[in-house]
């Protein structure tokens, strides 16, 4: 059986194997961008993604290094014709993901 979301499936598989994420949210926003001029003639329904990733692999690394890690993992999908056109990343270490939750528990919001 062929998947209706092969690029999303590949993203999930590669990030899961390499980064062992605690949190991995993949949002396919392609439908919001299908009318853009750059998308004319593109038949793929998987071109624009937002990723939220929490991984211990990101601990101690600046955002740029984290984004480079993800981009390197998804290099094939980013370079392939009809592949990923836009990729928005939010990368956190487990400690960074914990901070907002701790503030809420302590009654501090903002």
UniProtKB/TrEMBL annotation:
Chain spans, region Disordered: 90-110
Extent of Basic and acidic residues compositional bias: 99-110
GO cellular component: mitochondrial matrix
GO biological process: [4Fe-4S] cluster assembly
InterPro entries the record matches: BolA (IPR002634), BolA-like_sf (IPR036065)
Organism superkingdom: Eukaryota
Pfam family, one: BolA
Entry's family note: Belongs to the BolA/IbaG family.
The protein, known as: BolA protein
Organism: Tuber aestivum
């Amino acid at each position: 059986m062929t998947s209706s979301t092969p690029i999303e499936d590949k993203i999930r598989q590669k990030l899961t194997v390499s980064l062992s994420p605690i949190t991995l949210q993949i949002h396919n926003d392609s439908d919001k961008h299908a009318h853009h001029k750059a998308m004319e003639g593109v038949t793929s329904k998987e071109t624009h993604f937002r990723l939220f990733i929490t991984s211990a692999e990101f601990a101690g690394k600046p955002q740029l290094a984290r984004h480079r890690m993800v981009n390197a993992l998804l290099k094939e999908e980013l370079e392939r014709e009809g592949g990923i056109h836009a990729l928005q990343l939010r990368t956190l270490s487990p400690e960074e993901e914990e901070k907002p939750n701790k503030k809420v528990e302590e009654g501090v919001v903002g």
